[in-house]
Amino acid sequence: MEVVGKSMKRVDAFGKVTGEAKYTNDLCPKDALIAHVVHSTIANGEVLSIDTSEAEKVPGVVKIVTCFDVPDIQFPTAGHPWSVEAAHQDIADRKLLNTRVRLYGDDIAAIVGVDNVACERAERLLKIEYKEYPSFTTVEDALKPEATPLHPDLRKTNELIHTSFKSSPDYDYEQAKERAVREYGAEHVREYEQTYRTQRVSHCHIEVATSWAYVDVNGKVTVTASTQIPHIMRRVIAQALGWPVGKVRVIKPYLGGGFGNKQDILYEPLNAYLSVVCGGRCVCLETTREECISQTRVRHAVIGKTKALYTTDGRLLARTLDGYANKGAYASHGHAIAASVATVYKDLYNDAYGCRADMTTVFTNSASAGAMRAYGVPQSVFLADCQIDDICHREGFDPLKFRMDNCVGKGFRDPGNGITYYSYSMKECMRRGAEYIHWDEKRKAYANQTGPIRHGVGMSIFMYKVGVYPISLETSSARMILNQDGSIQVELSATEIGQGADTVFTQMASETTGITPDKVYIVSTQDTDLSPFDTGAYASRQSFVTGKAVKKCGLELRNRILDYAAYMLGRPVEELMIHDNNICERIPEEGTTIQTDLSAGNGYGYVPDGSVDENDRYQDWLDADVKHWNIDDLPSGRKSILRDTGKILAKPGKVLLSMKDLAENAFYSLDRSEHITAEVTNHCKENTYASGCTFADITVDMEMGTVKIDHLVNVHDSGTLLNPQLAEAQVHGGMAMGIGYALSEELLYNEKGRPLNNNLLDFKIPTALDVPDLKVIFLQMDDPMGPYGNKALGEPPVISVAPAIRNAILNATGVAMNELPMTQQRLVAAFQQHGLI
């Protein structure tokens, strides 16, 4: 059928554009009580007392709960799969409400009332006594000896975790320097040191964090929430309240964006608790925009102290990174994001002698940092690719050629985690991007500019692994049900968060079963009492990990349907296939047999004479000189069949039976009634890399400190595109987010630790007027690890935009901006410092 790979219209498009799609607050009962969280007015200290006596007299107040009333249970909030090994479990450092204040606006009490007015009046009457300590919002201040440890029960200092990653166990930078001098001569070896900084930013999704909870007649607590991780949320709510998991039910309706903020457990456990203490009544807890920006999660601010060793002819020899990640007040995702920063810095380039990347995560009195789109990789690539361009600028190297010569190569395998490039287009991505932006011509044209207005081109590359295997568990389940009319229902707990997952899963189910997309009904609402298990939407995992489950389930359902068709028709199942909602004769094509499933990387080669070579596996085909055909060389239209059937390439013959007639018979036959369903679990133990680059062509007005983006192009190797139109939309969104990260967005604090711009007026995200026309180029290379040749796409578009813009500013002006965001104020100050204005 080849449904996968086409730009099918989104299955949720009509409901979303007409407003019929129901989000969390749309479904909240009208008589629900309203909850407000009371936040601390200091950034560091302790709550000594809270007098609620006057507040409780306010008409409409139902319940006031303080930090002295909640269960004394510390729990983790990260949206990670749970580890059965205690040493690998997330850090439990948070309570429903906190007596120990660790950031301005920490959660210290909650008021439940009949409406917002009652809650606001009551909050003004609370009398709160604090013991205040000096606050610190930066890593440097948090590591000073006099800084008060924020979590003394966990750590003696504010350092959470320090890790060191090396390209080889015996790598040492100083030894690499000595070796370089011996092999190349001191006059041909150079060293470059620089420190780079990235900032904390908010996700700014359209729908704020919100939930509502009630207790059912059987004592089960139901929480309806805007979340990316319903099954993980269920587990964390139970942990936070000391309940069995079965007592909790989580429902996720349509969701208005998450970007990783909703891969954390936010106020949902508190909401569940408030419902219980209010006698089981429904309680709605919706954050304000200000709360959502500064009291939920942010992207880690990172400081990277870097060194690089290279030769005068452009060979990268060795690099080091000593980095610090600003964790904020609570652990959230712990050290995992900092570890991601280090890993990608180490892996992005092929250092001749090796690389070391160390990262330290530090608690501070600021917003807790957690997951945000691309999980530390934008910070890592900013450190790595600013360093590369600085070297090139210093030595007069062409940044494109330098990257071509030194980027990680085909077949790269990370020695630490074993993830391998099974399909590789990094260099071709760079070639295509350079061609589009007219790199060579513009580098020449923009040389030797004078005056306040200048032009520049810059670039940056990226690599991104798919999902979390082998660092953590990757598992997903899928369920498919044959309906009475011959259509099918698809049930998943992989979550649609705006990225188009439901549409792609519909295409996958159609492709694999032979039932057309209009007859595939996907259930977008996840309900942990009903939906099969999945860890949720994060790590660009869903089309890869859940996609494998959908494919596996589709094959199972198809086989069961064909088995029933064989019974009805009295024919061998090998003679039948499903095509366009019909049971058809299967017409084999001569000499085209293959064996097993290539998507798992263990299929056998399709060779010109039609035989099967059981000694050569698919990944061995990647070399151009092998005798087997690469899957991309197969005749048009056969790739999906090859991957799909696992047996014989075939085409449909005569129609024998409609799916509608088969389904009616299966449900109602007096002879053999059979309700045809399939449910499978896929435990994913494979991974691969997506890669690509960004090229920026800009105009800088140095006197005004403005950067106008004239052309911006992202080039991606994301394997086979499942839906090209959705893919392009994903990249456009990520590029826009990258522009804000580069030029304007930063959550700021004063010296007392109070947030200064936690609102959409002062937190400057790009508007439609700030985003230029965006260009996307895809290089489609079928990847053997993906269920349909696909790999990650959701997060990579944001990664390399900021360093590409920064490097274009360097090309235009000769000024290296080593801190994000590159605001007008910072640009003007830098240009003044360099005597340009």
Structural description of this entry:
With 837 residues, the protein is α+β, with helices and mostly antiparallel strands. The chain folds into 3 domains: 13-133 and 209-286, Aldehyde Oxidoreductase, domain 3 (Alpha-Beta Complex), CATH 3.90.1170; 164-200 and 298-469 and 687-833, 2-Layer Sandwich (Aldehyde Oxidoreductase, domain 4); 475-594 and 647-683, Aldehyde Oxidoreductase, domain 4, CATH 3.30.365. The protein is built from 19 helices and 29 strands. An 8-stranded mixed beta sheet has the order 3-5-1-12-9-10-11-20, sandwiched between helices. Strands 7-15-14-13-8 form a 5-stranded mixed beta sheet. Strand 10, helix 5 and strand 11 (248-252) form a beta-alpha-beta unit. Helix 8 runs parallel beside helix 9 (377-395) and helix 17 (724-743) packs across helix 18 (801-813). It is globular, with a radius of gyration of 28 Å. Residues 591-648 have low confidence and may be disordered. InterPro entries: Ald_Oxase/Xan_DH_a/b, Ald_Oxase/Xan_DH_a/b_sf, Ald_Oxase/xanthine_DH-like, AldOxase/xan_DH_MoCoBD1, AldOxase/xan_DH_MoCoBD2, AldOxase/xan_DH_Mopterin-bd_sf, XdhA_XDHase. One of its GO terms (molecular function) is xanthine dehydrogenase activity. This is Molybdopterin-dependent oxidoreductase. Keywords: Molybdenum, Oxidoreductase.
